[in-house]
Write the structure tokens for this entry.
Amino acid sequence: MRFWDTSAIVPLLVSEPRSATARQLAADDPGIIVWWAARTECVSALTRRRREGVLTAAGERAARRILVLLAAEWSEVLPGDGVRERAERLLSTHSLRAADAFQLAAALLWSRGDTQGLELVCLDSRLREAALREGFRPLPD
């Protein structure tokens, strides 16, 4: 099982330069763990692409159908005081935005404090760096 950040889920939904890599990672290990808000963050990314003209209405509908299928299979780390407290600590120690701090906090909660050998799939450079410093192995390499 791997923890997936939204930045790595979106290429599973729409064609992007890193889509093939993301699809291969998902095929290699279909056990996907995500932060509770990942689905909403994906919808935000899709609607932004639609507004910007990068994605057609039909493309957005197709991507949302894929998202529904993925979300039915993945496991979510739910919000709570533990996630919030970890996120607040992460904001003090890493150069992260709040949403990314919640992502990493959820991954840390999932790891139960032992990140050794655990992988975090992420395409965001700041979050990758913070995850590495917290002991995760960021993917793709």
